[in-house]
Amino acid sequence: MLSKAQISLITSLQHKKFRKQHGLFIVEGVKSVLEFLSSDYQVHSLFTTAEARTKMGNLPQKLKCIEVTLTEFQKISGLTNPQGVLALVHLPTVESFDWALLRQQHNLLLDDIQDPGNLGTIIRTAEWFGINHIICSIGTVDAFNPKVVQATMGSLARVKMYYTSLGDFIKKSEMPTFGALLEGKSIYRTDFRNAGLIIMGNEGNGISHEIVEKVDHAVTIPRIGNAESLNVAVATTVFCSEIARQKLKPS
Question: How far is it, in rounded angstroms, from Cα 177 to Cα 197?
Answer without folding.
Answer: 5
